[in-house]
Model the fold of this input.
Amino acid sequence: MILVTGGAGFIGANFILDWLQVTDEPVLNLDKLTYAGNLENLASLAGDARYVFVQGDICDRPLVERLLQRYRPRAIVHFAAESHVDRSLHGPEAFLRTNVDGTFTLLEAARAYWSELPAAEKAAFRFHQVSTDEVYGSLSPEAAPFTEAHPYRPNSPYSASKAAADHLVRAWHRSYGLPVLTSHCSNNYGPYHFPEKLIPLVIVNALAGKPLPIYGDGQQVRDWLYVGDHCAAIRHILAAGRPGESYNVGGGNELANLDIVQKVCALLDALRPRPGGESGGESDGKSDGKSDGKSDGKSYARQIRFVADRPGHDRRYAIDASKLERELGWRPAESFASGLAKTVRWYLDHPDWVARVQSGAYRDWLQTHYGEP
Ligand code: NAD
Ligand code: TYD
Done:
């Protein structure tokens, strides 16, 4: 079996669902269920004997050791993290704790477990660190995309904590021989994405008649990858990646934030035109959602609002994923157009999921960060 940490979050849940579709190898999911963890993402696995869930903290070393001894995984795929840059600006401490201390705890527990394994299992064991392109810092518009050799220059508490964790992972390989793999992926999007991140926030706010906040001039560039392609990349790396190596994962889809938001609006305009009626489609966030069933004929793009920029906002990320393609034969299956259309449709088809994640804690976040009443 494999041990997945943070499997109730956005990418972890997609990974477990994909994994159990393409293999029969059981999965143990260790997740603390922070605000970002949602067991509903994995509800379709209820009663599936290949799936075990344990609620717990990766910083809890006795727990991690007990799980390793009991389930004897052949690999750890480590997703668990505090993952939102804006939250890291408001409160960096949780990021240091989970991303740095938590990774350290996992590495130490993994090392103790791995060092006692019989020779063949020891050689086959893998610790996969799921990292981000944000550890490389920001690129100028004309610079070449990040390769694996790019120096680390993290700019936010989030990316600094992920960079620190990556350094520990590397050191545990060099110093102790632990067979580690690291992947650096660009911005993901897709189903089960918590609506604090740009794409799901825009979909959810658009449908609620609320403002679509664009930081600064909206010309910051990200390289967007459909989450299913990231999951497939991790499977490739876990199967055939060379221990001690890093692999960049990206979609080759560089787009400015404003373009992204306009594309989401255009899809929504086609699939779920803005409601008409007395209050429908007002962009002041006070819409009561009532509609006479007709559209007001206007684009959701009229809800776009430029707001104060994020401090230290990275201008551009771009990934050179040629090593992964060359060595392991991975390529993304989705184009940005196909992936975004799937994503928007998923949100339209899952209003109950959206309603349930917009809990009190979510509203507190909107109030803290966007000053929403
Ligand atoms: P997420 O915030 O949606 O999910 C994180 C999960 O980790 C949640 O289920 C949460 O409950 C769990 N968790 C948090 N602290 C924990 C702890 N101390 N112990 C156990 N579980 C804990 O994050 P995501 O977007 O799914 O990202 C997953 C991983 O992928 C992260 O390591 C992130 O750095 C990395 N990554 C994300 C992206 C992206 O675009 N989202 C891109 C590249 C890399
Ligand atoms: P986000 O989804 O938070 O991912 P990351 O910061 O990890 O790249 O943000 C993606 C981009 O969108 C980033 O440049 C910040 C910007 N953004 C906005 O303009 N408005 C928003 O409300 C949010 C959440 C993000």
